[in-house]
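Case study: TonB family protein.
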Amino acid sequence: MKLIILAAFISISLHLLLFNDYELTKKNEVPKETLKKEKKATIAFVKIKKEKIEKKVAKKVEVKKSKAIKKKIIKKTKKSIKKRAITKKVSKRLKKAPKNITYEKKRVTKIPSQKKVKALENRTLEDFLSQEDPVDKKVLSQIQRLYGREFETFTKVQKAFIKKNFNSFQVITQRVLTRLGYPELAIQKRLSGINVVEFLFHPNGDISNLRITRSSGYAVFDKYSIKLIEIAYKNYPRPKTTTLLKFNVQYRLY
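Here is what the predicted structure looks like once written out:
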């Protein structure tokens, strides 16, 4: 009997304990509907926050745009006000001024550059030289023999200078030859000959690249011709531009 009572007592106490635990778990459990509601509420709250932030940003952008537009409008209005004021002043002055007076615009003359001036000078020189008298045919034939096709590459000024002064170069050189005298060796051996001299003649009166392009066949005459040119060139007519000169130097015993 004692065992039955104990067993009954233990079973009753166990049932009570289980019952209490069940009630506690029921109390602590949160219904699913409330959880769902809470989740929806948090999502809605986040959306509202985002919308508010976006609205604030949009307002700031609009405010900045409106300020920039206002500044532009203010600048334009200021410019227009200044223009109106200037036009009013000018109109007042014109009204006050006498009607008979006529105002002329000042002509600004531009000073031409040095390059343009030189180009104009060369053109005028070329035009002037091209209108000169025709050159003797003998002189032209001599020039063509000495220069060949190279003569066609020269400018009008260079060509005109050579044609005009070709004879004078030879005459001045021959005068210096007669003044200095015939080479002694050539006199002793009774030699004669012709050589061709070539050099660049500059506008300041200097010469360069002096040489014999066609030898007479005698070293005495070739060396003597270079000495003659070094003395005679000071009396030659000077060119306007650097010009290549070629002419004959003759040696004859009479």
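For the exam, be able to explain this: The mean pLDDT is 78.
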